[in-house]
Amino acid sequence: MVPAPFIVVVDSNLLYPFTLRDTLLRAAASGFFQLRWSREILDEVELNLVENGVMPADKAQRLRAKMEEHFPEAEVTGYELLTPAMQNDEKDRHVVAVAVKSGAQVIATANSKHFTPLPEGIEAQSPDEFLCSRRAT
To answer: Beta-carbon neighbour count of residue 57 at 10 Å?
Structure first.
């Protein structure tokens, strides 16, 4: 399958809830978009799943390993030097740096207020906005 040209960085808050994570991963696997994340994003997901009692640490580690196994192209590296230059909310600057480094058009997030301002050519979209805009044509 030829990869979709559309690149999206998925924020950790969309990879936390099971049904949303499953929907996004299935859509990416079906070629609707190219999925991107960083170790830092996956660290947040894993930590929150464990700290909030959603799953034990060993299960969260297995989930992450499966995600990394099935989407090896998703991991973005080398974005760290860009992080300080981002102007959005400080705790989410790393996500924007990942988007810049990967050439993403969209950051899919449930917390768009943390993603303003954004560099030109990148927009933050809610999961509903994003998934509805990616429907098959």
So the answer is: 12
Per the CB < 8 A criterion, the answer to whether 23 and 131 are in contact is yes
| Spatial distance between the Cα atoms of 43 and 57, rounded to a whole number of angstroms | 12
Instruction: Provide mean pLDDT across the span 20-29.
Output: 96
Give the C-alpha separation, 94 to 33, whole Å.
21
Q: Bin 103: left if φ > 0, else alpha if -120 < ψ < 50, else beta.
A: left
Contact of 45 with 64, CB cutoff 8 Å: yes
**pLDDT tens digit string along 41-74?**
999 999 999 999 999 999 999 999 999 999 999 9
- If DSSP codes are grouped into helix, strand and coil, which group holds residue 48? helix
Beta bridge partners of 8: 35, 106
pTM: 0.92
Q: Name the residue ranges covered by the structural domains of the chain.
A: 11-89+100-133
Q: Check: CB of residue 88 under 8 Å from CB of residue 115.
A: yes
| C-alpha to C-alpha distances, 65 to 41, 119, 135, nearest whole angstrom | 14, 31, 28
C-beta separation of 100 from 119 below 8 A? yes
3-state SS, residue 104:
coil
